[in-house]
Design brief:
With 412 residues, this protein is mostly helical. Helices cover 74% and strands 1% of the residues. It has a two-stranded antiparallel ribbon with strand order 1-2. Residues 25-402 form the Major facilitator superfamily (MFS) profile domain.
């Protein structure tokens, strides 16, 4: 029996028989080091944006594009990663991505606004590779009952590094020679350390044999779309809060300094939730109700912000708890719903392409709604409604099902 017209979901799933090796310390370290590079070069831009705009003469519109460009690059690059990985090998592609990240970071730090945008595109493409490859690496090398824990670990590491990068960027710009140019490049240390760990792993990594198959991106799968939209909606909520929460609070009389600390508190709560989420899913192949409950916390958070904006701390606590849990689930689904590691790369490519496109468009669209209405009421209603859709998608993506392997086709 099937409820998917495309035939991509099974009513009575049987987990594919794939090896479940023990998780080595070296593997965990390698995964974590990639994770340290997935946000460090991005989250420091926002605090430095006023200095960047002042020194380069960029308008606020171009400054906004600079912060949106990584998400658009993620959306365009992610679907290509699985095929390239199949051709050259995962470890080789990780090393190439880290080298591209180094080059892009250096280029972005050079004088001239053109270098700023070119470098941003290059390093964002490199980060997209890491975003897609980590679920594939985890699916291939981590036992099924440990996927949630390892996913939670690397999400927590991303969160810590992102928060540190946000916090130190301005002090570094005020202290180091080169001002914000140098501050934008401080994350290179993570890439260099990761390269030192991943280059030796190339020896044990081979591209797929000639004539072998690689998993097709599952565009026709209902389950894949549920995973992808879940990824997109949770990303939309997170990036919208980062972009607009200070403005929403300012409308209610909150000072800019207080709004900044509330936004910091939100990220801390999300980090705590993402660290604790694996405990909620440990031993659970069926994660429907965890996903639904987390999404409903997000609905409640936007509801409190709409109905009682004076309770901002309660609102962001709910948003952080729900959003942090949803992020771990969204990344975990990209491994757990795949039959093998090549399919995990294909599913991650689709989920992150759709997801980051939604994340890029969402804050812009909600900002336009605010500009048209002059209030935050309608945007918050829209966010609450989309969070209800997040719960529906989480119910579907959280089922103990996986994509079939019939979508594979010969390597071209």
């Amino acid at each position: 029996m099937t409820d998917d017209p495309a035939g991509t979901r099974q009513a009575t799933p049987e987990r594919p028989s794939t090896p479940t090796p023990a998780v080595s310390v070296a593997l965990v370290v390698a995964i974590v080091l990639v994770a340290t590079n997935l946000r460090a070069t991005l989250t420091g831009v926002g605090p430095l944006l006023p200095q960047i705009e002042h020194d380069t003469g960029l308008s606020p519109t171009w400054g906004g594009l600079l912060t949106t460009l990584p998400l658009l690059t993620f959306a365009l690059t992610s679907p290509l990663v699985g095929r390239v990985s199949h051709r050259i090998g995962t470890a080789r592609l990780v090393v190439f991505a880290l080298l591209l990240l180094v080059a892009g970071t250096v280029i972005r730090s050079l004088p001239g606004s053109g270098f700023l945008f070119v470098g941003t595109v290059a390093l964002s493409a490199a980060i997209a590779c890491g975003n897609v490859l980590l679920p594939s690496v985890i699916r291939r090398t981590v036992p099924a009952n440990r996927i949630g824990a390892i996913s939670g670990l690397y999400v927590a590491v991303m969160g810590v590094v992102a928060a540190v990068s946000s916090g130190v960027s301005v002090p570094l710009a005020n202290t180091l020679p080169g001002s914000w140019h140098t501050a934008l490049a401080w994350g290179l240390v993570f890439a260099v350390v990761a390269l030192a760990v991943w280059i030796p792993r190339i020896r044990h990594d081979q591209p797929a044999p000639a004539g072998s198959t690689h998993a097709r991106i599952p565009w026709r799968s209902g389950l894949a779309w549920q995973v992808s939209v879940f990824m997109g909606l949770q990303s939309l909520g997170f990036y919208t809060v980062l972009a607009w929460l200070p403005s929403i609070l300012a409308r209610q009389g909150t000072t800019a300094e207080a709004a900044g600390w509330i936004l910091f508190y939100y990220q801390v709560i999300a980090l705590i939730a993402s660290s604790a989420a694996p405990l909620l899913t440990r031993g659970r192949s069926d994660q429907r109700w965890v996903a639904v409950s987390a999404a409903l916390l997000v609905v409640a958070g936007f509801g409190v912000l709409l109905a009682a904006p004076s309770l901002a701390l309660l609102s962001v606590t709910l948003l952080g708890l729900g959003g942090g849990t949803c992020l771990v689930l969204a990344l975990g689904f990209q491994s757990q719903r795949a039959a093998d590691h090549t399919q995990a790369a294909a599913l991650a490519g689709m989920a992150q392409s759709i997801g980051y496109l939604i994340a890029a468009v969402g804050p812009l669209a909600l900002g336009a709604i605010h500009d048209a209405t002059g209030e935050w009421t309608l945007p918050l209603v829209v966010l609450g409604s989309l969070s209800l859709l997040l719960a529906i998608m989480g119910y579907g993506a959280g089922r103990d099902r996986f994509l079939p392997t019939a979508g594979a086709h010969p390597k071209s």
